[in-house]
Amino acid sequence: MAVLDTQDHVIGYMPAPIAVVSDNGPCYRGKDFQSLFTGHDPLLRHIRTRIKAPQTNGVIERFFGTLKYEHLFRGYIGDGDALDMEAHRFRIIYNTIRPHQAIQDRTPQQAYLNPITQTNLPTS
């Protein structure tokens, strides 16, 4: 049910994304989750990755690896509430403090608020 609550929060908070990409976990295959894609913006659609092919969902797989190895595995987490708190804490760090090589060593927040415009390169 947490996935559904999060999805409702995201859809209510910002313009609907064009696609939600997920793996093939049972929580993403059920009627409850699929019902989120009816009645919203017609461009909102659900795309599931290929079965047993985590590389097709590489961005989130990389994020989960970073979450585990840079944050969660560095200390003791006693219960689900502590895990929830640490995941939330890391999300703030990841988006507002931690620089990302793929976006010129800026934070996602900096990249979103101050996008780098690309100049046209000469063609000749």
From TrEMBL:
Report the domain of life of the source organism.
Bacteria
InterPro entries xrefs: Integrase_cat-core, RNaseH-like_sf, RNaseH_sf
What is one GO biological process annotated to this record? DNA integration
Q: Give residue ranges for domain Integrase catalytic.
A: 1-116
Per its record, what are the GO molecular function terms?
nucleic acid binding
Listed Pfam families: rve_3
* UniProt-recorded name of the protein: Integrase catalytic domain-containing protein
State the organism named in the record: Mycolicibacter longobardus
